[in-house]
Amino acid sequence: MKTAGIVFTLLICFSGLFAQEDSTDTEDYSQYTDEVAVKRFATQKVLNLSATKLISVGYEMQTTHFMDVAIGVNTYSQFYKVRQASGPRVLVNFPIVSNDKVIFNLGGQYWGTFYTMEAESPTTSLNPPADFLDKYMLHSMGIISSVFKPLNEKNFLILQLGADFNGAFPGNGNTVNGEAITISGTAIYGWKPNDRKMWGIGVARTYRMGRPIVVPVLLWNQTFNAKWGTEIALPAKGFLRRNISPSSMLLAGYELEGNQYMLPGAGGNATATSNLWLQRGEIKPRIQWEKQLKNFIWLSTQAGVRINGRFNFTDSYNGKESDEVFRTVLGSPFYFNIGINLVSP
């Protein structure tokens, strides 16, 4: 009995020691709480938005249409048929910096157009500017940079700046120079209330209608449900999107395209070697089909109508209406575009 009492006493002592040790080393769960709230940032996409093209190689063709030409403000006196206007299109666009705080993309593009001209009467020769268009291909080569800067979880900035070198290279002793360069830019402040909607307002300087203008901009990308959404950046473009499946979608809407081209030695008021600038703007209502071929490789096809916005020739860089040497009226042909694209994940 005496021994049992000693053992019982020792157990009581040891239990007290362990209890004291546990009380001093009790884990403080407060250390796992956030002392500083994690700051979240808006992303640049909404659900089901069409994929961003990293590399795009395509070809576009406009069908036969008429071109009537007037010299200065005179009545139209030259009548031609554009048998075909076609050419390749190439786009590259890669993220240079991409993280939660900023996305910076840098890319380049090429757009070529060759016109096959024919006089309305078989016995009539081609005169300026139709003869120049028939001989030489129009080229547009440019670089574009864009920045998507989220300010917080709900607000963001989009900044874009582009420079294009546009002209023809006739090899007749006249060459293009710095006056073949056009500069464009856009700034947008936006809101993203959720992953289905982002919108913004801003301002842009653009040559999309062939002449430099400054216009307000409205951005509205929204996914209404699993099938329908919008991809809008007015006035440049606006589309209603129909998601057929995860690998296929249709877009219906329009896009404005164009630029100003330097045409050295195209013929003007003075001599056949004087320079002209073609101010070209096109309105393109269309239906566009995007189809995944394999992994990140997509097929893109377009079919629509090319409506003339401006196709006039001036004798000065950024010329106004008073500087126009030739004015034209163009028909509205059907056009087709097909391309293969490598898209972002």
Structure description:
The structure is a single chain. By secondary structure, this protein is mostly beta strands. The protein has a single domain (53-343), classed as Porin (Beta Barrel), CATH 2.40.160. 8% of the residues lie in helices and 59% in strands. The chain has helices at 2-24, 130-135, and strands at residues 53-62, 65-71, 76-98, 103-119, 138-150, 155-167, 181-194, 197-206, 213-223, 228-234, 237-245, 248-263, 276-294, 297-305, 307-314, 324-330, 334-343. It has a 17-stranded antiparallel beta sheet that branches. The chain starts with a helix and ends with a strand. Mean pLDDT is 88; it is low at 1-35.
Q: Quick summary of this structure?
A:
The chain is mainly beta and 345 residues long. It has two helices and 17 strands. The N terminus is likely disordered.
Question: How are the SSEs placed, and which strands pair?
Answer:
Elements: H1 2-24, E1 53-62, E2 65-71, E3 76-98, E4 103-119, H2 130-135, E5 138-150, E6 155-167, E7 181-194, E8 197-206, E9 213-223, E10 228-234, E11 237-245, E12 248-263, E13 276-294, E14 297-305, E15 307-314, E16 324-330, E17 334-343
Antiparallel strand pairs: 1-3, 1-17, 2-3, 2-16, 3-4, 4-5, 5-6, 6-7, 7-8, 8-9, 9-10, 10-11, 11-12, 12-13, 13-14, 13-15, 14-17, 15-16
Helix content class: under 10%
Q: Over the alpha carbons, how many angstroms does the gyration radius reach?
A: 31 Å
Q: The CATH topology is what?
A: Porin
> What percent strand?
over 45%
Order of helices and strands: HEEEEHEEEEEEEEEEEEE
How does the overall form come out from the CA principal axes?
A: globular
Second-tier CATH architecture: Beta Barrel
What is the CATH first-level class name?
Mainly Beta
Low-confidence stretches: 1-35
Look at the structure and give the mean pLDDT. 88
Number of strands: 17
N- and C-termini, Cα separation: 80 Å
Tally of DSSP helical segments = 2
Structural class: mainly beta
**Name given to the CATH homologous superfamily:** monomeric porin ompg
**What is the makeup of the main sheet?**
17 strands, antiparallel
